[in-house]
Description:
By secondary structure, this protein is α/β, with parallel strands linked by helices.
Amino acid sequence: MKISTDWHIHSDNSCDGACMRVSEVISGAARMGIEDFGLADHLHTPYNLPDIVASRREFLSNRPSSRFHFGIEASCVSQWELEEIATGRYAEPVYGIREGGPAGAALAIGITAQDIRRLGIEYVVGGTHWPIYVPFERQAIIADYHRQNMFLATHPLVDIVAHPWWWHGHWADAHGRYDHQPWFDDFRAIPQSMHDEFASAVKEHRKVVEVNLAAMLLNGCYPDSFKARYLEYLAFLKARGVALAIGSDCHSPRYDVDFARSAAMLEGVGFREEDFWRLPPRRDQSTAQPG
């Protein structure tokens, strides 16, 4: 199979150190045979909205074709931290407020329907990126991540649920690898009932689930045994009739993604190119700058 779509590309406007110019996204996509694709720079809270404005301006300045789209990646955060940040008491809450919130805090994303219209955002990728004020203990993390994934799967502004069961940070060994917690030694630690509930919610709410390349399938910090089980999980979602989309999650200065290796991995569990979601070419070619 061949991969010809990519809905998760970060530009140098993203707040997490991504460093690729939008012009390189365009030339790189042509070089790699990617036909339909889009930006998805990070938006954690409204504090990051100026980054999305800059991303939109750079996108428009490159006179994008109708097959190059403008999206964002919105993190699942808490309503408590959105309200705290709105007070102005926090100097630089780039990643929101990661400690001190109430247990079971109501979940949120940091963008509104009005923002989406104003900025010309064509699709929203929603991602679970960190625990929301729970202990670093396997079952607590699993329950919390499932709660966040379900929130994103049912949110009216989210179109694509990013990299379900991605993990970063706590539990990395001295080499940055993840061999055990929270689910890398045994993906079965996540109850099948959670996978079933998530698949049902995604279908009911007509969402798309991301097949993430860099953060999941090609992640050198994850064990090969986990990747094999994760591929089986993706095949399970496909068998349940869940729509799936490719996302490279590229953060590099050049658009050099090992699409061939990723395609071979996916083909090994029964995927074909036509199995993956894509946006149709954009009809409105407006180049209005964000207000």
